[in-house]
Structure formats: C-alpha cells, structure tokens
Amino acid sequence: MMVVSLKFADVAARSGFVIIATYSLSLADAGRFGFFVTILGIFSFAIGYERYIDLQRKGVSTSNDNFDYNAFQTIRFFLSNYIIVAPVFGVLLLISNFELSVVICGIFIALVETFLNFSYHMAIISKRYIPLMLVSVVRNLVLLLAIVFFTFWEPNSTGFRELVFIWAIISAGAICLSLAYWARYMLPNVLRLAAKNAPKTSIRDHYLISWHHFVIGLIAIITLQADRLIAGAILSAEASGIYFRHIIIISLIYQAFNIFSYNRTAPKIYAMSENHGNSEIEKRISDEYILIMIMLMIMSVSIITMFYCFRDISADYQINVFFALGLVLVSAIRMRADLNNLLFNSRRKENITVRLQGIAFVVGLILMPSLAIYLGIPGIIIASVAVALVYLLLSSRAVNNLEKV
Q: Which of 34, 266, 367, 394 is packed most tightly, with the most Cβ within 10 A?
C-alpha cells in the first residue's frame, strides 16, 4: 500500500508540473515543451529496456544480497545502454531545433528518470527501496512548487529553456541523494557478493533476456505517443502548443484508467483464467468497461459545461471543446481494446497484443502525417480515432477467434 500511495503521489506531482508548465508557457514554448517531454519519455524507456521485468521475477524468491547484486548488474546495463542510446536521442533533439544546452540537459534528465522509475519497480519487490521512491516523489514535488512559484510570482522570468535548466538542476540533487542512499545501504551487499565471485550477467545477455519485453513495450509506447510525435514534428509551434494543452489533460484520463481500472482488474482476470472460460472473463471485462463509460460520460458532460461556463478562460488558453471530446473518444475506444488484452495475457497469448499494436501503429503511420499536413489538429484527432477503431475491431475479432474454454 505504501508503494502504491507513493507512486500515486509521484505521478500526481509530475502531472501537475507538466500541466502547469504547458498552460503557463507561451503557445510556441508549450509546443516545444510537450514535444520535449514526449521524446524524453521514449528515451528513458529505451535506456531502461524493460529490464525490471526480469529482475522482478528473479527478486521474488531471492535474498536481499542477491537482489541488490542483480539490481547493480541492471544499473550497470543502464549505463552501457545509455552510451548507445544518448547520441541517438541527442541527434533527434538537435534536428528538432532544440538548443545544444537543452539537449545536454535532456540527456541527463532522461538518465535520472530511468533510475527513479527503476526504484519504483524495485520497491514493489523489496521495501528497502522505498526511500529511493521517496526521493522521486520529493523531486517531483519540488518541480511542482518551482513551476507554481515562477508561474504566479515570476511569470515573465521563465521560458522553455529556463524551465529545462531548473528541471536538470533539481534532478541532479535527486540523483545525488539516491546514490548516497544506495552507497550506504545496498552497495555493501553488492561488494560482499562480488568478493565471492558471484556470476555476472553480460551486457549481451541483458539485451537478449529482455528483447521480447522491450519490443512489446516499444510498440505500445510509440503507438500511444505517435500523435504527439507527429504534432511536434509537423504542426507549427503554436498549433503544437494548442494540441499539447489538450492532450496533456486527456492523458491523465488514460493514466487514471491504468491505475484504477486496468491494474486493479488484471489480477482478477488472471485468477479467473485458472478455472473460468473465456465467455465469463469477457463478461467481467464488459462489466468493468461499463463503469469506465459511465465515468467518461460524466467527464464529457463536465468538459462541455466548463467550456461554456468559462468561455473567456477557454478562449485565452485556446481550448477547443471539440478537440477535447474527440480525444476523450480516442481514449474510450483504446481502453476497450486494452481491456481485451487482459484476456490474451491470461491465456498467454501476448503475441496477439504485439501483432495488433503493430498493425495499429502502421495504420497510424500512414494516416496521421498526411491528415496532419492537410487538416492540422483535426486531422491528427480524426486519424487517432481511426487507428483506435482499427485496434478495437482487430482486438474484438481476435477475442472471438479464441477457443472457448
């Protein structure tokens, strides 16, 4: 419960920081910031390479010494992988017209993000890593307080570049605290096993062990972030800023879905798979989705009401009610398809999920750029709806094709 609470606080503080930054910056800077955060997330994912999954599996039934030793091996892999991935990330930011100083800060922030996210995955298995999670929470709370201060008390002193510098400085403090804790409480265990010539996992083996998990995660994250990448790459800075101001709020809906619905329902579906047929699991999934739809309907009505009650504020921040509702529709469709994935996972048919997400990604790659060029923001939203529908239709067909048990 402590780990979940800390993670929720961590996500809430980070989301608050990103939202306030997106709405307080100028439209052009908001667009740059949104694109920067999107690329940063993908880069951090690439560094981590989904290695935590294998480590969690091993850590369930191992001693503290072995767990810390394996975690250290994974961190060593992160650093090696970072050397490979960082130049790619840097070039991508440079050709996206980011200043060199911003690129350097971004490369550093991504590494810190990887380590802080890793602490959460480790804390799930070993409570000794909870203090490292606490460092991440404090870091994001300080970021939130900093953006609040500069927004309300020094509104003209902070632009996109200054905000990235602040982010990097606060992240540097967080990684120093994390390393100090690690050196004090985990490093002795690592050195003790190293002195006994404990076996090491080669860098090559790290790649091979987690290759499948990485591919699944990469397809999923790029599919989810495709609209943001295309908005940042094709739209003007101002139009991109408008889009990110809409998508950043709607993305919170998706995060809430993952925390309160998907992650809560998954263990129940997996337990049902032991002695229930597919039809019963499908009914459980449908019941969950009905609750989701009720919440989305309430949210849609709230969006419409707030838009018309605060029309002047909406105009000041370039908020379009149709854009917002369109993105809610995209989320609603994707959530239904994601819930179907629980059935595939429960039957150990993860390959179906990979195939369907791959097809959806290809469809999006064809539709989104062309529609974005000709229609702008409406084109991206229309393409997103189409991609989500393709994903859902293929997912529903795959469910029907599963053998009834």
A: 34
